[in-house]
Specification:
The structure is a single chain. This protein has 687 residues and is of the alpha/beta class. The chain is built from 24 helices and 21 strands. The strands form 5 sheets. The chain has a 5-stranded mixed β-sheet. Strands 12-11-10-13-14 form a 5-stranded mixed β-sheet. Strands 3-2-1-4 form a 4-stranded mixed β-sheet. A hairpin with an 8-residue loop joins strand 19 and strand 20. The chain is globular and about 100 Å long. The chain starts with a strand and ends with a helix.
Length: 687
Amino acid sequence: SNILRVGLDVGSTTVKIVVLNNDLEILYTNYTRHFSDTKNTVCNVLQDLSNRFDSNDFSIVLTGSGAMSASTFLGLPFIQEVVSCKKAVEKYIPSTDVVIELGGEDAKIIYFDKFIEQRMNGTCAGGTGAFLDQMASLLNTDTAGLNELAKNYTTIYPIASRCGVFAKTDVQPLLNEGARKEDIAVSVMQAVVNQTISGLACGRPIRGNVAFLGGPLNYLSELRKRFIETLNLKDDEIIIPENAHLLVAMGAAVTSVEYDSFSNDILKQKIENLKNSTDNSSYPLDPLFKTEKDYIDFKERHNKDTVKRKNIEDFSGNCFLGIDAGSTTTKLVLIDQEDNLLYSDYGSNEGNPIQSVINMLKKMYSILPTNAKLRYSGVTGYGEKLVQTGLNVDLNEIETIAHYEAAKKFMPDVTAIVDIGGQDMKYIKLKNHSIDNIMLNEACSSGCGSFIETFAKSLNLSIDEFVSSAISAKRPVDLGSRCTVFMNSKIKQAQKEGYTVGDISSGLSYSVVKNALQKVMKIRDISTLGDNIVVQGGTFYNDAVLRSFELLVGKNVIRPDIAGLMGAFGMAILSKKQYESNMDDAHISAILKKDELDSFHFDISHTRCGLCENNCLLTINKFNNGKKLISGNRCERGSGNFSSNTNLPNLYKYKFERLFNYTPLEEKDAKRGTIGIPRVLNMYEDY
């Protein structure tokens, strides 16, 4: 008979089709990117099938993460992709013990043992094909170019593999420091390997014959190489099936033998049904502002929370400096004795925190009047230690304390502080005027400032246009609160359903806040935030995000007009307090002066610490003020301030020698013979 067995695998980024004859030999295959337009892509692929084999009958089975709704409208059987993968593995590569499969947005490890166990990524798409696409675009190339670059690498740098947004920050400084693109490319691939193995295998060893499936592993030889080296696989343990990227579709085609076949005319009818189907999987949310008046009231209310300012030009007297060297931006604030804001500066650190602080200080010194005495300075944030050591800053403090100091100025009885920065989110819960709990985002950066920035870019909007389109949108689309990589396809889906750019940007503002509330702050009950909430961080300058926060929390909140400078403002207040309580009146800040900044320079070198098996990669900054700062160490030995007091007794050695150098009794005196003690656990310790 001339029945064709067809497997259609609708993945998160591609559609694969495999056509087998009755002896299960491949007649035709196709692999296309669907750019989130799954419905039309599936129609085109099936239309093409119908035209190519117009006199045949078909039995078709669908599989893959995007196939559920298509199979309903087509009236065709659907099987779960792991089942499909199992069928294909058993038929084509039966000697497999473990499958590693990477797709566009998913990663899977399947163990074929006495029973099958599969591990799959859930909430994070770091380490998948779409992650590689994102990273390749940072290097102005595509994934094939990434592969070519990786062939000529010399060093592998550690890159955060957990989150695309974090990985971007690891790559940016490497680019700024002039690291070779070849090395960055291979480091990105190694990050994918680390993410897959640590995130999915979770310690279960990957042994035996390993098969590599899916698009990225099929097309990127260097990515396979990184897996093979990391897992120490021998040549005879590596299985790379001929059609690694089509294997799941082949499994579906093999399964289709169990189902009834139908004629080409029926197939044409099914394609029509799918074409005319509408799948409105997204529901609109309430608009951010129902009327123009709502928006005007909102603006008026927030314009009240302002800091007192004074003009710096004619200022004389004591002033205090606060610096916040953040993960993506640098902030600087100068205040007087009454906490009036004299001067502030805010800018990107371009991956070099210390240089950006120097530039800001020079700018400040150039307008600082001679009668203004800089009495004390403080620094907080991500580059705190580096800036303090290099520029002789008087005080350093952890950022939560700095933020709390600043928030108290605007609302003395503050009960919660929510801070969303470029890549970090912080939630500080207060009780009886002291910090009760602190939450930070760890593994996921979806919903931070740089996430919105990237999206505004992808929609071709400036941040201002993004905000104004969100504010006037009437039906914001519900995008959930998921990983940035997943969000991309959700947005494309919404565009196809006819949502406007404004609907998408207002929906994104909701998502950012949902992500902060649910994932980072893990808030089950909104009332735990209390009544006096202060929001800060650069992301809250965005009115759409601020409004979404108020709507989701159901309360009006306080956003200071210096929301993005709060860390630096708090640091300036702390410097003032420190000066007033501990210094004599004539004390002048030790921070480098104008002429010292001009001659300031520092050298960066890298070395491995060899003092233990960790072999940490140390970064050594040597400053011309004679100080040096070592980072990258996991213990105090690496940082060089380890006291090597050699007189301390080695207790283990002492116990060992005391036990095993012990002279036993003569045979004739040992009445009960010789006793053996196993040298394990606590047995000989206790004896």
